[in-house]
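User: Fold both of these, please.

Assistant: Here is the first one.
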Amino acid sequence: MVYYLLIALLVILANADFDRHKSTLLVDKSSNYRMSFQTCIVVLILVASFRAYNIGLDTMTYKFVYYNNANGIGHTGFELFFDLLFNICNALSLDYSVVISIFSIVCYTLAANYIYKNSINPVFSLLLFVTLGIYAQTLNIMRQALAIIVCLYSVKYIKTGEFIKFIGVIFIALLCHATALIFIPAYFVRYFKLNKYTISFAVLFTCAMSILLPIISKFISGFTTVDYYGRYFEDTYYQNEVSLLAILFTLGLFAIFIIMYANRDKLNNAQGDNKFNIFLKLYFISTLLRIFALFTPAPEVIGRLALFYFIYCIFLIPYFIEFGLVGKKNIWTNLVIFASLIYYVALIEVKKSCGITPYAFIWDRDVILTILFYVIFAVLSVIAIRLIGLRYKEERL
């Protein structure tokens, strides 16, 4: 757990320049801010790339498939991107760790690029990416994680109404994981108006739809490249009771939505590009999926699907803090950081979600990597202290 806490602390320190950075769309980012953001991304890539094979429940499964494929025992059965990746790495006789490293570099670089260009405070969004458990999930569900990140790039086509280009991006995501199909309805949020009546109807309809789960699972299985996805909904191995943490998390998500919805006009007009409105509608779908999960025999599976929409929370919260809380930004920033850290610890250490604890490096003797980790952490700490000092000096002047 200590490594994951250090990652969170590192991003918190990088966020020391929060007040200085007003908007990625209106103000040029300072070189220090870019350096802080890039350093955080490098650390995320390193921690993901050099993790042991038992970090992440699916990581061992992928390893088993990779080496079976290398020995000529069947095909991977995965979507095209990972099938090609596995086959190419096998043809070059590369170790499985290379596959993990390639995934880490591609996934977090794409995520970083989108966050940096579309968040009004990229480092704070990155902090939420970590503390809300999205990063932890990527250490486990690698294929789906990459599909989720690719789907981010389709959002601009929702805004512009370019359906063909939107489907093109979704098609690329489908090459990573078939569950990207669930993001196709996202395009139609541009025609959906949020009000108290539509919100109430959507929540009630979601509860009613939960009884149709068997039909939905068969539909998903019929439209995927792998015919075993339906087992996640029907096999008792994947079924479990809804935990108290899951209920509280769902209530928390819905509360966040209500707060954002109540301030939607002010927040959407702050940038004047309607981006907040699109993000809010997408995030609303994640709350519906989480409510749906509470009534299903396989809540963890639905929770994974909800990640396609939940990720937009990391863009909404900075909007609210920046434009919705005049004179109270520091208080709310600290409250959000504290609350998300509590959830982060509960998710990883208490619930043992994703099977990523205790963290271990791929090599038995991890002294060099540990030193490297702390060196990067120290460098970022120095940068954060310098930024705080500069801000203090400006206030004195």
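And the second sequence with its predicted structure:
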Amino acid sequence: MHSSRIRPIASVAALIGAIVLATGSLACSTKTRCGMWSKNTLEGDLVTALEDPSPNQRLQALARIVNYSSPLPEVAFDSLSTIARTDKNTQVRSAAIRALQSHLSPSAIDPIVLIVLFKDHPDQVITPKDQVIWDAFVALSDVCDQGLLPDQHRDAVRDHMIKTLLSRDDRNIRMAAAYILQYFPIRPALEALIGAIREEDFGICYEAEHALIAMTGKTHQYDADAWLAWLQQTDDPFADTGQTPEGLPQPYKSRWRKQWDDFKDRMAWRNTDQDQ
């Protein structure tokens, strides 16, 4: 992870120069209040997202970056990381996280993990609101889905997911933590998920049960006592990891993931509508 303390990108000119070196050109000519680069290019959108005083303008620029089709240059990830970790506006930070998630690469993963583990990195991440934390958890779930989480982050992420599932009040974040724990087949994670099945909130129970299914290849239909009895009787609870019990659909659709996918669809529609 980066070791530098919280600070903005040092110079917009340096940013643009780095992008020119990375992409080879600046295909724009329209002047804007953020500089001489069009907002309809990656260069212009990054400058707007970093420097525009209007949160709405920053948000619109990031929405375009989310839909940018070409691979992003390294300096773009530095810019998105700065915005996601330090912008004063919650929606702007969330949009920057979604931009990182839309262009997943090793350079996008560190800032996502930093935000998830923000309490361990107060010198690099301004304390986020729950919406930003949830978006970072959603992005982290994609990282885990694609098998991209670096080994050096696994222990810290696993321990934080267990702690979050057991202690946080925000249901969306706890549901996301349960989902992510399916990728950490160890007994403490298993026991935390079984405990979560006793929750009154069915959304948390649902995610916990399906994480247990992914982790063990078994189901006990939301019965925590049955899960505990099975755990006490089995020598290797992870022998069937990744298997789907007979009669269950595969793959299941996470409820909170569906909420986020629906939100992405609305963002894409909004962005298209604004470009007309």
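Confidence is low (pLDDT under 50) at residues 1-5, 7-13, 19-39, 269-276.
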